[in-house]
Amino acid sequence: MSLIVQKFGGSSVADAESIKRVAKRIVETRKAGNDVVVAVSAMGDTTDELLDLATEVTPIPAPRELDMLLSAGERISMALLAMAIKSMGHEARSFTGSQAGMITDATHGAARIVDVTPVRLREALDEGAIVIVAGFQGFSRESRDITTLGRGGSDTTAVALAAALDADVCEIYTDVDGVFTSDPRIVKKARKLDRITSEEMLELAASGAKVLHIRAVEFARRHGVTLHVRSSFNNSEGTIVYDPSRLPEGAAVEESVIAGVAVDLTEAKITVVGVPDVPGVAAKIFKIVANTNANVDMIVQNVSAASTGRTDISFTLPKSDGERALTALSNSQEAIGFNSLQYDDQIGKLSLVGNAMRSAAGVSARLFEALYEAGINIEMISTSEIRISVVTRADSVHAAARAVHTAFELDGEDDAVVHAGTGR
Ligand code: ASP
Ligand code: MG
Fold first, then answer.
1. Residue 205 C-alpha to ligand 1 middle, in angstroms?
2. pTM, whole model, 2 decimals?
């Protein structure tokens, strides 16, 4: 008997009809002779709606209470799903994150899983029940409070359950047919990948791809969990996210140069204008920024003008960290000795990711050529071994993604299908 962990996202359980459809799917897996553990997200855009509601009550909700509120979303869907399954004549039992033994640290809104003690889940499985677990939430032993794992955290719940229960596979069901070469909501000709390495998936997720939560991919990689991303709306094969180093010997897999193109509209750019070009200034700037806990991404420093001995340093960071970093820098203007600060939140980032980039020549030239032909200006560039990212104007990054997707011959024959969801 196999143990299968299945995760269903918010758009797969958006209303009563969808919940019944998902219940049927779960029952089919059970009937095929498997033990089934399900992690479920809140219905549709429930989490966003609860967040909106909270900020209507107060601009800065207390983190503990916000977690209490948001964790309710998954409680609703888990109970409804268990009811639906029971009504189909199969035993099912729902559990909150805390009941399921999802032990986290005490960080509200971004808790990290420190332990999983699925005692009650094992008992329920032994008694022949299908187990439904509320995604996205846990319990801190330290604070004795309910926590949430951060937006999109149900993927991580599923992977953590799969690791703790030593599941045979962790299936992530979503509103598209798998992992695509680009977001099918942006690039219509995006193609579904049959498989992708976890390293590439990690880079894509870090570069803005929303199909899988980055922490879930990290967790899966660390614990050797194989992910299978597929649609809850049909039976097509989906995408396997695998670790090549764990492949059986001789199982060679041919790699394409480019796995995908990701777009990120969540970052802003800060430029520190007129920085003295002397040792230690960059250290000062980024120490101040780091102390605000801002997550700096790309950094560019220009050559200094010989006449002034001053230069500009630009860097990108999440928009949500922008305000804090700006204030801190502005408070240190005298100590650093720069002329002024510029803040630009109208940027977009495009990233091209592929394992075989390590050894392939001319990838960046081809990327820049494609952007040039599409009339798109590049503002910043950064690279890693398997990724090239460029910053453009926000309103041209989607066109950029389409142009680059075509230039690297990633376009599929037909338009990709998005079954549901707002991509919110
Ligand atoms: N409901 C949570 C969110 O919308 C968790 C999840 O969907 O994975 O972020
Ligand atoms: Mg959601």
1. 16
2. 0.87
Please tell me the distance between residue 263's alpha carbon and the centre of ligand 1 in angstroms.
20
Structure letter (DSSP) for residue 169: E
Distance CA 211, CA 263 (A): 12
Q: Which of 129, 30, 140, 22 is nearest to 81 (CA)?
A: 22
Any ligand 1 atom below 6 A from CB of 151: yes
CATH number, domain with residue 289? 3.30.2130.10
Looking at the 3D structure of the chain, how many domains does it have?
A: 2
Q: What is the DSSP string of 15-77?
A: SHHHHHHHHHHHHHHHHTT-EEEEEEPPSTTHHHHHHHHHHHH-SS--HHHHHHHHHHHHHHH
3-state secondary structure of 11: helix
Residue 123's CATH number: 3.40.1160.10
* 202-222 per-position pLDDT tens digit: 999 999 998 899 999 999 999
Neighbours of ion ligand 2 (CB under 5 A): 10, 41
Element (DSSP H or E) covering residue 283 = helix 281-290
Alpha helices in 151-280 (DSSP H): 154-164, 198-206, 214-223
Closest by Cα among 231, 204, 232, 229 to 218: 204
Percent of the chain with pLDDT over 70: 97
Q: Which two tokens stand for residue 9?
A: 């996202």
Both tokens of residue 165? 């229960």
CA atoms within 13 A on the CB side of 172: 28
